[in-house]
Design brief:
- This protein has 89 residues and is mainly β.
- The chain has a single domain (6-78), classed as Beta Barrel (OB fold (Dihydrolipoamide Acetyltransferase, E2P)).
- The protein is 0% helix and 53% strand.
- Strands 1-2-3-5-4 form a five-stranded mixed barrel.
- The chain starts with 5 loop residues before the first strand and ends in an 11-residue tail after the last strand.
Length: 89
């Protein structure tokens, strides 16, 4: 096993060629105030699997592939259920 970081998140955009935007959310308790904090960040990931918006994917850290891409989609954990309605279409 290698030491590359692996994270799971949901695909929020697939409008680029072979690139998806994955939103990674984490929930943790604040160390001092004990409040539950929800944080999220979006990363660009290289996609050879043809992911759709709403898919839950596992991404793995890689070498820099472009100015923004540092992650690669490793596998699709769960496909999006049914057709998603996009505003404006």
């Amino acid at each position: 096993m290698n030491t590359r970081r692996r994270m799971t998140g949901f695909v929020t955009s697939n409008k680029m060629t072979k690139t998806v935007v994955v939103e990674i959310t984490r929930t943790y308790q604040h160390p001092l105030y004990k409040k539950v904090v929800h944080s999220s960040n979006k990363v660009h990931a290289h996609d050879e699997l043809g992911c759709q918006v709403g898919d839950e994917v596992e991404i793995v850290e890689s070498r820099p592939l472009s100015a923004l891409k540092r992650w690669v989609v490793e596998k699709v954990v769960r496909r999006a259920s049914g057709g998603t309605v996009v505003a404006g279409e």
